[in-house]
């Protein structure tokens, strides 16, 4: 019942195209060259076999997981922005529900000595039945018995913990998984207000201000 009312705010359309119904792109496009690569795949320059038009396409590496969820509900940031455009905000029970789901994800990561390092609304996705999934591990870090802390300053400015930001200038500084807890706290404010604190400020200025406040 709760999940049904939750998605009443952001309805799923049954007319959405499923991946199984998509055509094989190789029947219409030829790969010309590789123009970039990232954590999850490569970007290719392609040419259309019929009209010769060119485009860029990202090809993901094969997914080797036992469970895979299609998060058609989009990100919680999408949900917030959509509500604000209608003059509404997320209600506290729904915020709690989203944060609980994100905390379960962080608990699993931290129990396995993994720091996410980029927790924010855009990296919390929703499934069509109201499931909450923490995503994007592009800057995550694996801790080990020999290395229980990290000192690389990575993340998205407004959500970064002070100790993570400080590592940019203070080379003797370090942090552990608790930096994700700070980022989730900022995400809680984002869910309630629509934006993280200091959102009106230039990101570079925010990076200087956060460790000093």
UniProtKB/TrEMBL annotation:
Source domain of life: Eukaryota
Keywords: Actin-binding, ATP-binding, Cell projection, Cytoplasm, Cytoskeleton, Kinase, Nucleotide-binding, Repeat, Serine/threonine-protein kinase, Transferase
Alphabetical list of Gene3D superfamilies matching this protein: Phosphorylase Kinase, domain 1 (3.30.200.20), Transferase(Phosphotransferase) domain 1 (1.10.510.10)
Record GO biological process: positive regulation of filopodium assembly; regulation of actin filament length; sensory perception of sound
GO terms of molecular function: actin binding; ATP binding; microfilament motor activity; protein serine/threonine kinase activity
Protein kinase domain span: 1-213
Cellular component, GO annotation: cytoskeleton; filopodium tip; photoreceptor inner segment; stereocilium tip
InterPro entries on file: Kinase-like_dom_sf (IPR011009), Myosin-III_kinase_activity (IPR052409), Prot_kinase_dom (IPR000719), Protein_kinase_ATP_BS (IPR017441), Ser/Thr_kinase_AS (IPR008271)
Residues binding ATP: 58
Location in or out of the cell: Cell projection; Cytoplasm, Cytoskeleton
SMART domains: S_TKc
Keyword Ribosomal protein recorded: no
Family the UniProt entry places it in: Belongs to the protein kinase superfamily.
Descriptive protein name: Myosin-IIIb-like
Organism: Sinocyclocheilus rhinocerous
């Amino acid at each position: 019942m709760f999940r049904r009312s939750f998605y009443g705010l952001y309805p799923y359309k049954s007319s959405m195209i499923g991946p199984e119904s998509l055509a094989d792109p190789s029947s219409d496009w030829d790969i010309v060259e590789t123009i970039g690569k990232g954590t999850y795949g490569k970007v290719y320059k392609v040419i259309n076999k019929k009209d010769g038009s060119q485009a860029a396409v990202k090809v993901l590496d094969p997914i080797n997981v036992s469970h895979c969820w299609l998060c058609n509900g989009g990100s919680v940031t999408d949900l917030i922005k959509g509500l604000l455009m209608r003059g509404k905000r997320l209600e506290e029970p729904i915020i709690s529900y989203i944060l609980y789901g994100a905390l379960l994800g962080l608990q699993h990561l931290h129990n396995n000595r993994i720091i996410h390092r980029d927790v924010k609304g855009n990296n919390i996705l929703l499934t069509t039945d109201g499931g909450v999934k923490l995503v994007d591990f592009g800057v995550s870090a694996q801790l080990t018995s020999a290395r229980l802390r990290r000192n690389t300053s990575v993340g998205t400015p407004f959500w970064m913990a002070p100790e993570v930001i400080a590592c940019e200038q203070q080379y003797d500084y370090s942090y552990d998984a608790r930096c994700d807890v700070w980022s989730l706290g900022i995400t809680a404010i984002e869910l309630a207000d629509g934006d993280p604190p200091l959102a009106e400020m230039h990101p570079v200025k925010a990076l200087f201000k956060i460790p000093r406040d």
